[in-house]
Structures are given as structure tokens and as C-alpha cells.
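TASK: fixed-backbone design
INPUT:
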């Protein structure tokens, strides 16, 4: 399920005010000084990449200073893009100072955090990094994920941008696009770390396929907020699309909200779809089982009574290393589940 409200209000998240001043001087300053820091990943000479907006981005050389959405940076890191990533924006650190789950294996203390929440993008700090390239996701066509609308024009003038789709295509296809970008940036896709991760992903997919065939249980991907229960659509979410292709019997909501990602239900109607297993959004901005326990309608759900709740990373990391554990977790939940409806 996608629940952060962005350009089309199809996703919901933590909104925070942000802004920047003095951009004009920084825009001018970004004309040079990009040789400091970072490391080249590809071969010398001109660099180009055609992103999922069908926009061809061309630069004099392979980008050496990349700023990316946190989850995007984490995926590129899994493919071997390391020193080139100098800054990130999006959920990066928790209140405790520990890395947000979306940061994956990214060393969050070695990158500059441009903003740690939705609509927090420090344009001055971004400009000060003298970026060669900005990389992010698109949950809606053309909408740069976590790049605020009110400062988008200023941000995109500072450096070229690459955007890869994050929905409406199955998870494995999107991971393939990330692999394409990583390779273009200089990653070695034959490195043991990458090939081992891909092998684990393929084994996990086979396990999930087998589990789904052997245990015919109904699964509902969902998310909870204080006022609403969200039933997610496996026809648009990349991970759910892939799970369904492997045979997982995912419930399809019949009255989707605008945007198509989910159906919003009042808590009184949380039992609309009889599920044997609940795949519950585990992002920090959503309610978890301990938070939901006080809601009578939650506690009465058959899957909750049976303890058949599995965590769902509803904004998956688009790499083999990031996705394999998600497949393994769901496979295990289905293997252990019994029909309760």
C-alpha cells in the first residue's frame, strides 16, 4: 500500500514545512567546483542514461556526486554505488539516531541529509553539495518522490535528475531498472555481493511460489492510522504485483480511492475483506500491532486473533538484497498460516 500524499494525493505521510533562501547565489556557485570529493564509478568520457520519464540525461562524465532519495540511495548502494552518493533526502534517521529501515545498509553518517521527512528538502544544503545528479523514484508518472512541489523548479535547476518508476510494474522489473542505472554509474553487476543477492532473491521467489501453492490462504496488504484502515491494491503496488504473480492470493479491494493504491475504510468496516493473513505496513509513520491493540475492531479480526500478521515494507528497497528478505518473510508467514475465514 502506498499511503504518503504526494502530487496526486495518492500517498499519505508526515508533512512538514520547509523552505530555502539565497538560492540565486548558490545556483551560480554550482557552475563549478564539482571535482572535490566523491569517486568516479564508470569509464571516462560522456555519460548518458534514459530514465523512466523517457528523458535522456547526458553529462560530460559519469556522475561523481549523487544526491538521492534515501531508499533509492540504499538500493544503489546494494549494487555497489558507494562513494558517489554524497547526500540523501527522505526517511534516513529515526529519533534515536539509528538508521531508518529505508536506509538499508547505507552508512547514514557518511552522507549529508538534505531532509529527513516528507517536504523537508533543504535546497541550500543541496546546492552546497555541488551535485552532478539527483536520483529518485516516481510513484506517480513524472512526480519526483520526496522532491517538494514548491521548490522543485529550484532543485531541478541545480543538477540533472533521473527518475525510476516505483509502481505499476512488478518488483523484479523495477529492480532490473535499478541494476541498469547502477551499471551505467559504474557498478559491477558480476561482483559476488550482487550475484549472491540475486541468487538469494531467486531462491526466495521460488520458496514463496511453493508456499502459495501449498497453503491457499487469503492475504490482505494493509495499513493502519488513527482514523482509517487501508486495504491495499495488488494491481498497482510493485511488490504486491510481484507477490501475486508468484501465486499469492492477495485480496483486491473493490472500491479504490483516487490514485488506485488502496481503499480507505473506517475502523468499523475493517472486517470488510476476510483475510487469513494480514500483511501490515511497518513504516515508522504507520500504526503497529501494539498501537492497534486498543482498537476493538482490529482485535476482532480473525487474522489478528490467530496471530497471523506479517510485517510489510510497503516502500520496498529496489535491489535484490533489499527485496529477498521481504519474499522470505511473506513465504514464512504463509507457510505457518491456517485458514481462519
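OUTPUT:
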Amino acid at each position: 500500500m502506498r499511503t504518503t500524499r504526494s502530487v496526486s494525493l495518492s500517498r499519505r505521510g508526515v508533512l512538514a514545512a520547509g523552505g530555502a533562501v539565497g538560492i540565486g547565489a548558490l545556483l551560480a556557485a554550482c557552475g563549478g567546483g564539482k571535482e572535490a570529493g566523491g569517486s568516479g564509478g564508470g569509464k571516462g568520457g560522456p555519460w548518458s542514461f534514459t530514465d523512466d520519464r523517457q528523458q535522456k540525461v547526458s553529462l560530460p562524465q559519469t556522475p561523481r556526486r549523487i544526491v538521492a532519495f534515501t531508499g533509492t540511495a540504499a538500493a544503489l548502494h546494494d549494487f555497489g554505488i558507494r562513494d558517489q552518493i554524497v547526500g540523501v533526502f527522505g526517511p534516513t534517521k529515526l529519533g534515536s539516531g539509528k538508521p531508518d529501515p529505508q536506509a538499508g545498509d547505507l552508512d547514514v553518517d557518511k552522507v549529508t541529509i538534505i531532509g529527513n521527512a516528507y517536504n523537508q528538502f533543504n535546497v541550500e544544503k543541496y546546492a552546497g553539495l555541488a551535485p552532478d545528479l539527483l536520483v529518485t523514484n516516481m510513484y506517480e508518472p513524472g512526480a519526483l518522490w520526496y522532491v517538494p512541489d514548491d521548490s522543485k523548479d529550484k532543485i531541478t535547476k541545480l543538477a540533472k535528475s533521473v527518475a525510476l518508476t516505483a509502481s505499476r510494474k512488478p518488483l523484479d522489473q523495477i529492480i532490473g531498472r535499478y541494476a541498469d542505472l547502477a551499471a551505467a554509474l559504474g557498478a559491477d553487476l558480476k561482483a559476488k555481493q550482487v550475484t549472491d543477492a540475486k541468487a538469494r532473491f531467486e531462491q526466495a521467489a521460488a520458496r514463496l511460489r511453493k508456499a502459495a501453492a501449498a497453503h491457499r490462504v487469503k492475504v490482505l496488504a494493509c495499513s493502519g492510522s488513527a482514523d482509517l484502515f487501508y486495504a491495499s491494491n495488488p494491481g498497482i503496488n510493485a511488490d504486491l504485483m510481484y507477490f501475486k504473480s508468484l501465486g499469492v492470493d492477495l485480496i483486491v479491494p473493490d472500491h479504490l480511492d483516487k490514485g488506485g493504491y488502496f481503499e480507505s475504510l473506517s475502523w468499523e468496516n475493517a472486517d470488510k475483506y476476510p483475510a487469513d493473513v494480514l500483511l501490515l505496513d511497518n513504516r515508522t509513520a504507520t500504526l503497529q500491532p501494539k498501537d492497534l491493540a486498543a482498537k476493538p475492531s482490529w482485535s476482532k479480526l480473525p487474522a489478528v486473533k490467530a496471530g497471523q500478521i506479517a510485517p510489510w515494507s510497503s516502500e520496498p528497497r529496489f535491489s535484490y538484497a533489499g527485496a529477498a528478505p521481504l519474499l522470505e518473510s511473506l513465504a514464512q508467514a504463509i507457510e505457518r498460516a491456517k485458514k481462519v475465514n
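COMMENT: The longest strand covers residues 218-224.
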